[in-house]
Amino acid sequence: MGFLSAFLFLPHEIKGYGATEASPACSLPQSDVRTFRSGSVGVLVASTECKVLDPQSGRELGPNQDGELCFRGCQIFKGYLNNPEATAAAIDKEGWFHSGDIGHYDEDQNIYVIDRIKEFIKYKGFQVAPAELEGLLLTHHAVADVAVVGRPDEDAGELPMAFIVLKPGQTATETEIANFLAAKVAPIKRLRGGVEIAQEIPKTASGKILRRVLSEELRKRALQLKKSKL
């Protein structure tokens, strides 16, 4: 909903959040721009509830704790046509729609979306959000674009790995980039899978990173390496 910033002559982009299953809005920015919070997708629309669940335990979480965003309200759909299994997976018995998105809310009820659960990197039983690491890497002065994916590993499951596009005229080594991130994150989020300098990041026409393309390339490399050792 970034178009609202231009329409309202705002100095920053404002966003809302929704889904086809939510007809389509769950949250919208507040009308008072003084309450704007950078990175937020606004507050809940009328007659809508939100809770955040730990993806692994199902335990309900509090403010500023990342988990799966779940919504309940009159705008939430009743189910997928002729697909009871998908419906049961999306809507629980209490009517909560499990969005599949990871995020949190703050003390002022502003909602933040971090990443998709299915895109999480599984490292030794821990779940690492690629979007979080990408956001941090983009703060490096030499980084123009980035994509983080899981590199297959027999012991750990997956290792976080970054594909980096450098800004024109800028230089940075793979080690420099890895150390830059390591200083900002917990040990489980370090780029143990390595850093690779790339010419471009594969994306859809709308600008969404095609992680599956990069993941498939890494799987092919892992398979070739395994065959070469036979």
TrEMBL record:
Keywords: Ligase
Record-annotated AMP-binding enzyme C-terminal domain positions: 132-208
The keyword ATP-binding is assigned to this record: no
One annotated GO molecular function: CoA-ligase activity
Keyword Lipid biosynthesis attached: no
Positions of the AMP-dependent synthetase/ligase domain: 14-81
InterPro entries named among the record's database cross-references: AMP-bd_C, AMP-bd_C_sf, AMP-dep_synth/lig_dom, ANL_N_sf
Family indicated by similarity: Belongs to the ATP-dependent AMP-binding enzyme family.
Name of the molecule in the record: Luciferin 4-monooxygenase-like
Source organism (scientific name): Lingula anatina
Lineage: Eukaryota, Metazoa, Spiralia, Lophotrochozoa, Brachiopoda
Gene for this chain: LOC106162559
